[in-house]
TrEMBL record:
GO molecular function: ATP binding; DNA helicase activity; hydrolase activity
GO CC aspect terms: cytosol
Domain annotation SF4 helicase: ranges: 142-210
Encoding gene, per UniProt annotation: dnaB
Matching InterPro entries: DNA_helicase_DnaB-like_C (IPR007694), P-loop_NTPase (IPR027417)
Name of the featured protein: Replicative DNA helicase
Keywords recorded for this protein, A-Z: ATP-binding, Helicase, Hydrolase, Nucleotide-binding
Pfam families: DnaB_C (PF03796)
Enzyme class: hydrolase
GO BP: DNA replication
NCBIfam families to which the protein is assigned, alphabetical: PRK05973.1 (NF004629)
SUPFAM superfamilies: P-loop containing nucleoside triphosphate hydrolases
């Protein structure tokens, strides 16, 4: 059964019903659920709270972890990164999404595509689209907050595109040290080399990460690769 709107919009409709009528929130939610063809709100929610790769990944992340997400364009790596930031509150963290690739409208549209209301999180997700994003910039932003952080950086190969920024490996080592010291979780989205599409591989691997500049990939504890709807999660050897 397809919902008429994402769950967060249905919840918003229920809140409007509460404001304009003499009904309690659970009654309004049940009314909305009935309109969608379910017996009550818990029935609706149980049908649309299915497991996703992001939910499985976030369970495996702990303080100080560095995760690398790799995929070719169009295979869902950015959406996965955004969902991880949205789920940060589930593990009592604040989600941060730093992107050098998208503007704020792009990010908002992708959150809505995932069914999340960017303004409706218990812990608001921080979205930063500054052109100045680099390791030092990210660390400075995080140092201003006392919250435990889950940080997604989009994306790896753009961090040292400006000549004034330190080399890529130096930046990743700085983020590694920060994560270890402060207990942050750092997720970095990465491009996969286009030669992968000419290979017979069913899933990219660490050897397919596009590295125009040197980088020790063993700095990442965990890796996640996506291709054609499939997701593979692995720990570094």
């Amino acid at each position: 059964m397809r919902l008429s709107s994402p769950i967060y919009k249905l919840k918003r409709r229920a809140k409007f019903l509460v404001r304009g009528n003499d009904v309690k929130l659970h009654e309004a939610l049940n009314q909305i659920a009935a309109e969608e063809g379910f017996k009550d709100w818990s029935h609706l929610a149980s049908n649309y709270s299915k497991a996703t790769p992001a939910k499985e990944i976030v369970k495996q992340l702990g303080a100080g972890d560095m995760l690398l997400i790799g995929a070719r364009p169009g295979h869902g790596k950015t959406l996965l990164g955004l969902e991880l930031t949205a789920l940060a509150e589930k593990i009592n963290r604040t989600g941060y999404f730093f992107t050098l690739d998208f503007n704020e409208a792009d990010v908002r549209d992708r959150f809505e595509k995932l069914g999340f209301d960017p303004k409706g999180f218990d812990r608001p997700v921080v979205v930063d689209t500054s052109d100045n994003i680099c390791a030092d910039y990210v660390i400075e932003c995080l140092n201003k907050s006392s919250d435990d952080a889950l940080v997604v950086i989009d994306y790896l190969q753009l961090l040292d595109q400006r000549r004034r920024n330190p080399p890529l490996e130096e930046q990743v080592r700085a983020l590694r040290a920060f994560a270890t010291k402060c207990g942050a979780i750092v997720v970095m989205i990465s491009q996969i080399d286009r030669t992968f599409e000419l290979s017979s591989g069913l899933m990219p691997s660490i050897d397919d990460i596009r590295l125009p500049n040197p980088l020790d990939l063993s700095l990442f504890d965990k890796r996640c690769f996506l291709h054609d709807g499939e997701v593979q999660i692995e720990k570094a050897a």
